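Minutes, project check-in

Agenda point 3 was the complex the collaborators sent over. CS summarized: two entities, 629 residues total, and the question is how they sit relative to each other. Sequences were read into the notes so everyone works from the same version.
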Amino acid sequence: MADTVVGATSDPHASGPHASGDDPSRRDFINIAAIAATVGAVGGLAWPLIDQMNPAGDTLALASIEFDLTKVEPGQQVVVKWRGKPLFVRHRTPAQIAAAVKDDHADLRDPQTDAERTKPGKAEWLILVGTCTHLGCVPTVGGGEYGGWFCPCHGSVYDTSGRIRKGPAPKNLEVPTYSFLSDTKIKVG
Amino acid sequence: MSGHSTYEPKTGFERWLDTRLPIIRFMNDTALDFPTPKNLNYWWTFGGILALMLGIQIVTGIVLAMHYVPHVDYAFNSVERIRRDVNYGWLIQFMHANGASMFFLAVYVHIFRNLYYGSYKAPREVLWILGCVIYLLMIITAFMGYVLPWGQMSFHGAVVITNLIGALPVVGKSITTWLWGGFAVDDPTLNRFFSLHYLMPFVIAGVVILHIWALHVPGNNNPKGVDVKSKADTVPFHPYYTVKDGFAICVFLLMYATFVFYMPDVLGDAINYVKANPLVTPQHIVPEWYLLPFYAILRAVPNKLMGVILMFAAIAVLFILPWLDTSKVRSMRYRPTARLYLGIFFLACLVLGFCGANPPDQPILGHEPSGFMLLDADINSIVWLSRIGALYYFAYFLLVMPILGLTETPLPVPEGISEPVLSHPAAAPTGAAAAPEKRG
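CS then shared the predicted structure for the full assembly.
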């Protein structure tokens, strides 16, 4: 067999299916190139059709908000809408902060200290995305045995630092990216 | 599609058309003269009922789309406007909303008929799998349709279900964002759900055509579960089964009309008459009745990812059913033990439905928990009941079906559809050699 193949490629006058016009390697190249070009074209067209479903430019442009903290009294929580979801802005009392710090080294499902969840020197302000990390319901403030939040859907309990303590939720309430613009104003997102 | 065509063109036009596009021949062979087992009972009429329901959903849906506005600010009000102001809008909207429930009711009867008479077994595996595909598409379509009125349950149901995908490791979050088209269920989500909800029924209709094609290759199964042996075992589909199906359709429509005209909201949730508010979650989120068993399986598991996997597995397991059932006997008329297990399975589905409708920590007996904690939940709670139900659900497919087929002794199976009474063990003399005892 090897002889035949060598003969076919080296002798331009060879007859039969491997004659010069039917060179197998050139045929293969054309086939592979055509298939590759088709796959590339389909893939190139598919991506815009898939990516169009991702957040659009104007949706992303509305992705950050500013909030004036003076509106929130100690012990109170204000809920604002951010990226279509509720955002919890909670002004914690010293007792609530103490309760959160005391449990820093308790048996936590998603271990985090209270200091990691607040800004330095601003421990009274707890900013959280107000959706349960289980399936996205909105937990009620002050509920549950830890005085943090209680999710009415499937019974997840969060403490005063928004850490998951009981129930099906896997993670702590998410702390969004935010920064203090001044002592009384934050920018979220 | 298989076998000989009995169609003979009668007029000159029919002959002319028959040599160019034999569509009349095709209709005749598939819908009129198709040889059908002569012993089909009323459980076999649900295929026709389902085809009719799909048609009703498509027609009423197209009309509703002429008045509905897929925008978070207008969707809720536009549905209310359809009900109050659009001419006959109340009728069309109630037909569509209750039609979904009737569609699922019929499909569940259709599926259980398959389970009882073993219609999924060789040579009808592809037919069964196509049916599973239709069922899955129906679930997706119904879910997206339920979001469109943009009530509280619409919105928070969408939040919970799309968050299920977020349970997947690594890619979960980007897929959810992609589905949402934003950072939460919002206007882009509503728009695309509307677009896809309009598309999906036509995809279903396409798969239905494949489903009927796959039915017409081996032909119908029948209550005895034995193969058709000769023409004497069959009757033409028309007029015998067009009339039988027609009668069943009339009865089914009477029940459907009772819901539409006398209790149009009884199957829905009152809270969906409150406009969606992303900042307040209803106390108790439940899906529509036809998805409650899967919701109960989801909540039975304390781990989020495992719950999601089990819920999808509950549907996925249906696809491999033809290879899980090791019994060669199709009809459960001749499998008394299997019949018992199927009965318990039906019960387990009802129990799971009950669990899905109630809060997980609610006691089952009395009003107080028993006080005895087993692992993470009180033993007298919906959670534990749904765990038992879910365990049996999977055990039925993964343990009972493979093992029972190998160990049970079925009753004597008749030789053919026209053979008399070998089916009844009392009628057959003991030790009758004619009874082909099929084991395994």
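Noted in discussion: Confidence is low (pLDDT under 50) at residues 427-440 of chain B.
Follow-up: revisit at the next meeting once the mutant set is ready.
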